[in-house]
Amino acid sequence: MSKLPADVVLLDGAFEPAKLQLNVGGGALVAYTSRSPDKETENEDTVAVIPWGPQAAVLVVADGAGGLPAGKRASVAAATSLAESLQVALEKTMLLRTAVINGIEAANNAVRELANGSATTLTIVTIEGRTARSFQIGDSEALVVGQRGLIKMQTTAHSPTGFAVEAGFLDQRDALHHEERHLVSNFIGTADMTIDIGAAVELATRDTVVLASDGLTDNVHIDEIVEMVRKGPLAVAADAVLAKANERMESERRGQPSKPDDLSLIVFRKP
């Protein structure tokens, strides 16, 4: 059985919500995960926070593929394999960007070796000093939001609706109600997995980094997320986002999205 480094935090929230606040990578972080309010089976999401020295960290959200067997095993295996690979890379003083790519490949192999047909999304944001960079496989998304609400970085969901929004063929709000919203075209655990690597983004004071599974982005509009996270204490902002997502999942209202699902969130700020 594998053993994670002592400073790695892995949240699975299998049957009960899991939440933590900590200082990591030279900033403050809140992480949360919980299972869908309408199911009795375990939460298939996994959240990981992996320190990389005093001023750097690797933030991870993995969403085990719904409808496939053992989604939870897939998300845990991916996050665990990534953390183990990064620990080896840190000891070898490898560049973080290279280490993450190698770690993603290790995660893909680990999920494929489960040999149970499972898969998972994997979205990562690295924090290195004041530089953030995203690495994405699937439809869990990441944002960097400025204090005045400017979106400085936003990943694209690997789905027909995600690509349509990016190309300008579909409005972001309309995408939440689209019949193909649930389709995902890229997973960890597949032979044709691809990594979408974002450009480096310099974090200004009080910029907020957000990572989330589709339990958030299928229920709360991006502009609503931006407005809630851009100001105020980090823990208060996280609570507001989570409350809105849970409210939407638990009660359907005309004109608003409502898709009960496992929900994971990481928010991070540098002072």
Description:
The protein is of the alpha+beta class and 271 residues long. The protein has one domain (9-269): PPM-type phosphatase domain (Phosphatase 2c, domain 1), CATH 3.60.40. 30% of the residues lie in helices and 27% in strands. It contains seven helices and 13 strands. The chain has helices at 71-91, 96-113, 160-167, 172-175, 214-217, 222-229, 234-250; strands at 9-11, 18-24, 27-34, 45-51, 56-63, 122-128, 131-137, 141-145, 151-154, 196-197, 201-202, 208-212, 263-269. Strands 1, 4, 5, 6, 7, 10 and 11 form a seven-stranded antiparallel sheet that branches. The chain has a six-stranded antiparallel sheet with strand order 2-3-13-12-8-9. Helix 1 packs antiparallel against helix 2 and helix 6 (222-229) runs antiparallel to helix 7 (234-250). The longest helix has 21 residues, at 71-91. It is globular, with a radius of gyration of 17 Å.
